[in-house]
Every structure is written in C-alpha cells, then in structure tokens.
Amino acid sequence: MSDYDRIAEAIAYVAATATEQPSLQDMAAHIHLSPSHFQRLFCRWAGTTPKRFLQVLTLEHGKSLLDESRSLLEVADSVGLSGSSRLHDHFVKLEAVTPGEYKSKGKGLRIDYGSHASPFGNVFVARTSRGVCRAAFLDGDDIEAQLSNLRRVWPLASFVNNDSTTGHVVDAMFGKDPNPELPLSLHVAGTNYQVAVWRALLQIPRGTVVSYKQIAASLGSPRSSRAVGNAIGMNPVAYLVPCHRVIQQSGALGGYRWGKTRKQMIQIWERAQ
To answer: How far apart, in whole angstroms, are the C-alpha atoms of residue 226 and residue 216?
Structure first.
C-alpha cells in the first residue's frame, strides 16, 4: 500500500467520524500504524498535523472559507489578470479546440500520454503540441479506459506513450517544475459554456474555495448553479483546472469526479503548501 493509499484511508475515516473527534490513536489504529509513525507519515504528506486536518473538515470551516473568498472578478482585478489567467503559482493559457480541429477528428494530430505518481495517486496525462488535453487521477489500472475516452473524441489521432513528455507536465502540476516561469498550456474540447466555466475556475487562487453560485454569478447568470455544476463535472483536466476549489453554498464539500476524499486531500494539501 502506498503512502497516498494509507493517507486516503485515514482521511476517509476522519471525514466519516469527524463529529466524534477521533484521537490520534484512533486514526493510527484504523490503518494499523503506531501513533508516532502515523503522525510522521501524515505530516510528511500533508504538511500539517492530523489534528489540524480534523479541524478543517468541519462544515463551519467550509462556510468560513466562503466568507473569506472575494468575488472572482475582484480576485482577477487584484492580480491584474484576464479571465483565463490565474492558476496555482503558474500562468496557464487555456485554448479551446477550434471547430475545424473538432471536425477533423484528430487527423494528423499526435497525442502523447503517460501515467505518473503524484501526491494524490497515479495521474494520467495526455497532451497535444498545443497543450494538455486530458489529466485524470487513476483508481486502479484504467489507463486503457482513459485512452478509449480520448479516442472517442479524436478517433483519427495517433497516440504515443511518452512518459518523458508528460512527466514535465506532472512536475509543473505539483510544484517540481525547474522552470515555473514558463506558461503551461491547456488544449481542451468543450462547448462555449463549458470552456467559460473552466476559465472561471482558473481564477480561483490556490488554497481558497468558492461556491457554484459564485461561479455562476461571475458568468452573469447567478441562477445557473446547476449548469455550472454540470460543466465542472465535465472538466477534462484534473487539478490544473481546479474544480476541487468549488464547494456548496452551505459550506459542504460537494461532489468531485475523482472522489470526495481526494477532493478533501487536495484542498488541505494546497492550504498547507
């Protein structure tokens, strides 16, 4: 079992029993480790203590994060960036697939792909010459499933297993890029509305959260939270397009395409980093 799997199991346990305020001993026993070993492992992975993490899991904390969040437009103005700009500590350029590219079904297009370890389990990454077109956390050996999804969109493209190329993307995703000043490009296929939502997500600063309603309001349609949620659910680029930073207006975590436990882990990890 990897460190990620151990921590994921511990966090799922803490989330399920948060109202009972489990002790360090309880958490450690759940994954069959000594309290001291568990504490060291957790701090090494998350950058914070299990006790602090438990505090962050409460609904009230989610509400306070929303209260602290400024509007998306205010955030964009304060950092002097346009609507498709802010991502983590990097500058990300999101380009939508053109109608002509979509119509060609990938003819003449090369897509490099690979699978790599990350703080949140293995991640599948695929990229074209113009940028990352897919990133997804893997639960089990479902690389072929990811490739099948891509082939449905680009049936005439050529697919090349190229861990060297995709490894640079993963380094940039999780702060190991030796050239962080270089832009990281995304090349995604979606409807105009989906692309608008994904661009709005790029404006959410690292370590903060917003609600679905706030995203809808930033797009000029405050009553379209459900449509925003649907677009977020179709996000093709995990983590880089930070749908994990969107929670419910009540402060509850909300859904996540790659699992609620992973969503909790990413939020805490970002704040700790």
So the answer is: 9
For the question of residue 133 being annotated catalytic, the response is no
CB 200 within 8 A of CB 245: no
Query: DSSP secondary-structure letter at 121?
Result: B
Q: How would you label 172-191 residue by residue, b for 16+ Cβ within 10 Å and e otherwise?
A: bbbeebeeeeeebbbbbbbe
Pairing between β-strand 246-247 and β-strand 210-211 as defined by DSSP bridges? parallel
Q: pLDDT (tens digit, 9 = 90+) per residue, 174-201? A: 876 655 545 678 999 888 999 999 999 9
Domains of the chain (ranges; CATH) run 1-57 (1.10.10.60), 68-247 (1.10.10.10)
Burial of residue 226, with CB atoms counted within 10 A of its CB: 0-12 exposed, 13-18 middle, 19 or more buried: exposed
Q: Is the pLDDT of residue 71 over 60?
A: no
Range scoring the smallest mean pLDDT among 20-29, 46-55, 67-76, 229-238: 67-76
Find the catalytic residue in 188, 200, 243, 265: 243
More confident residue, 134 or 273: 134
DSSP 70: P
